[in-house]
Amino acid sequence: MKKKSHPLLGLHSLLLLIFIYVPILLIIVYSFNNTRLSGDWKGFTFEWYTSLLENRHVMEALTNSLTVAVISTIAATLLGTLAALSLRNVGKRWKGGMNGLMYLPVVIPDIIMGLSLLVLFSQMHIPLGKATVIIAHITFSMSYVYVVVTARLAGMGRQLEEAAADLGATGWKTFRYVTLPQMMPGIISGALIAFTMSLDDFMVSFFVAGPSSTTLPIYIYGQVKRGISPEINALCTLLILVSVVLILLAQFILNRGKGQKKHKMLPI
């Protein structure tokens, strides 16, 4: 017999969704406002979206964000995948501790991460700039890739790999033709999540960015201190859209990979 949930739980969920999404919805709506007054609706316009393309500072910040996101995502995906493969064969005695270390950047507060990296760079006399931002983003993005790829590996099992080995396949051929194709949905999803995290990051970037390495979130923060304009709302709306699309795409790829795995395991 199916147990019915209490009505107050549904009301609580509804209030929670309203609390989370109404502010985001207001940003999106006022990005089309035909006036610079943020709280006064004067009509619908796309002017603020077109003006973004003509804003040199926005384009420079966008270029920095994309450069950092692409480079850090490639490096974090490679390192996170290799870490997941390496720890797959570690014994239970050490696996728990190593997993904890890999999960630490996910749970540690961003302000602690940013401050610790700033101290490290200053102690090593590394000038702050685009390179330090990339290193910082690799540091925390790698853990997200590791988590996704590890979950994918845990659901794979070793039956196909053992069958390939029994049929005479070498270790490299087994990895290339059996393990890697099964891992690929997790790797792609982890890369998309890493790219999203890098593109949206403010706190860590704020600590380790130099004067010539302003990213979009840092630029938005600097502009908000002067007042919230429809142009900033438009920029935030585009970031929200990109983030949502990438996260949904990552989830779709993961779910599709699970579906394909189940289909392959069906008896003929």
Q: How would you describe the overall organization of this protein?
A:
By secondary structure, this protein is an all-alpha fold. The protein has one domain (49-261): MetI-like fold (Orthogonal Bundle). The protein contains eleven helices and no strands. The protein has helices at 7-30, 47-53, 56-88, 92-107, 110-123, 130-154, 159-166, 171-200, 203-208, 216-224, 230-265. The chain crosses the membrane at residues 12-32, 66-88, 100-121, 133-154, 175-196, 202-222, 234-254. InterPro entries: Bact_Polyamine_Transport (IPR051789), MetI-like (IPR000515), MetI-like_sf (IPR035906).
Low-confidence stretches: 263-268
The major pleated sheet works out as: none
Give the % helix.
over 70%
User: Can you count the beta strands?
Assistant: 0
Round the Cα radius of gyration to an integer and report it: 23 Å
CATH superfamily: MetI-like
Amino-to-carboxy terminus distance: 35 Å
Q: What is the CATH top level name?
A: Mainly Alpha
Shape: globular
Strand content: under 5%
Structural class: mainly alpha
Please state the oligomeric state of the protein chains shown: single chain
CATH fold naming: MetI-like fold
Order of helices and strands: HHHHHHHHHHH
Average pLDDT, all residues:
83
Subcellular location: Cell membrane
Membrane topology: Multi-pass membrane protein
Organism: Paenibacillus albilobatus
Protein name: Spermidine/putrescine ABC transporter permease
Short description:
The protein has 268 residues and is mainly alpha-helical.
List keywords for this structure.
single chain; MetI-like fold; mainly alpha; 268 residues
